[in-house]
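Onboarding guide, step 5: your first structure request.
Type a short instruction followed by the sequence, for example:

Predict the 3D structure of this protein.
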Amino acid sequence: MSSSQTKLDLTKPVTTRDGRAVRILCTDRAWKDGNIEGPLIVALIQDDKVGEQLRNYTFDGRPIYGVNERDCLINLKNKFYLLVFLAKDETIPKAGVYNTEEKFKINKDACLKMGWPILKEEILEVDI
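The system replies with structure tokens like these:
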């Protein structure tokens, strides 16, 4: 388990660390076993073999049985698309940040049609 694991924000979308879909069923399961004492998060995790698996988690996203990094819950990050270009007769690059891939592609195509060189394009994943 990563020491940087923090409490989940259950008002935002949640996924497993390896990107599987998660459905939160409840956040108040009573539990007392060994060194873990509830309440717990009960969730269904996407599983290609059986459909979904029922799992119990602490509020920092750790499964209560097993410590597999890929099974940990994390908040889904927001994607932004960065485009840095050099406009005609300009010496200072300009940048655009787009919240959809469609807007990014439209602006990239416009730059290319005008002959403006693309200096950098990158997908940014950030917590908000």
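Each response can be followed by summary notes, for example: The chain has two domains: 14-75, 78-126.
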